[in-house]
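User
Here is a favour to ask of a fellow structure person. I am asking you to supply a protein in sequence and structure-token form. Please set it down just below, with no commentary around it:

Assistant
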Amino acid sequence: MRAFVFLGPSLPRSALPPDPRLVPLPPASQGDLLALLPERPGAVGVVDGRFEGVPALLHKEILHAMSEGVPIVGGASIGALRAAELHAFGMRGVGRIFQACRDGGIEADDEVAVLHGPEEAGYLPLSTALVNLRATLERAWIEGIVDARTTLHLLGLAQARFYKERTADALFRDAAAAGVEAPGLRAWWATNAVDLKAADAKAVVRATLEALDAPPSPPRPFVWTGAYAALAAEARFALTLDERLAYDELRLRPADYARLRDRALPKALAAEGRARAAPDDAPDDALGRAAAGALRRRLGLGRGADFRAWCADQGLDEAGFARVALGGAAVEAAAADPPLGFARRVLDEARLEGCYRGLAARGRDKRARLVDEGLPAASAAGLGLDPLGPLLAFAGEGVADLSSWLRAQGFRDVPEASRLVVGERLYKALVERDEHREAGPEG
């Protein structure tokens, strides 16, 4: 069994124990824990989570996981907040931050929030959490560096700052502007600052690993709601880790992906029961006219005489041509906006061709090599490359609308495609380097 931990700026991955059962994951957002359940986790730890710009991790996901017997441990950051809210329902909280959240000492979510860098930078913290500033000030008071009144004044200044702007330097600037004197504090702070979040994150990791060896958690009752059922229906189609790696490999082979996509699409639409083909009646709206115009241009039927002759040869009138055009446009639209579970259906086609195993194996090897090199999420920007350069080379000549082409290739957006394309470049370079080393010096 494996222990999964959602982790980000609270603790660098380099500080994790070398336990093969431990699987670190990026900070959690809505649906991430739900999507993890098909992996059959032995235990899950929640440290960090995303909340700005994306929906946050749902309480309902945690309750759902526990209802299936998965022990959930939380602490340090959003994990502490969720554990304080759900400890009565079976979620285990660890660490001082959890205790303060549970007992009312921490009431605002922004006390644990920080500004941090992207995944390729290891979620490097760019601000300091208020819980860390408070813990450091309390230690300074206990050690006699500052008195109680100064401690409270400095804490008030830290609380007044927006969480993205909270740092020790900002605190000292605010103190100087407010006329608060704390001689010796800055020098003491440099070597005595308390990282409470990191300490609690380590406790979460330990507790999550310990949960693997504990007796199985009894299933807990769970009440479904309509909204959560819809989210679960979407998560039901989430890919396993091997499937995600294989799908990434396949999307980097445009011709192979397009072939398997076109085979999977009719099956997916039929199984979904969604009529996306053209209606029997001739369309008279703007979509039908646009589709007909696009098809005429593609077939080189710009002249009216050529168009009428072509239709006569194919046994179509103008309305029939519009119907055919709209059907093709609908299929193209479906390829760019596929139904739920479409990625797995494409992989099923790869299985039928016998190429799935090779895709997954190459994906695992790539992931291992990039992780060993410390490049699990390398981006063009992080490597100093023009972000569009690798993508344009990948798409090749003749692609007028890069974003539309990438969506048809199964990519969510340009950043995702760029990450995979750059990762492929790095992987090939690493393979070539290792082969050169194995070959040894000539002669």
Remarks:
- DSSP finds 20 helices and five strands in the chain.
- The beta strands are 3-6, 22-25, 43-46, 72-74, 92-93.
- The longest helix spans residues 414-439.
- Residues 180 and 409 are 59 Å apart (CA to CA).
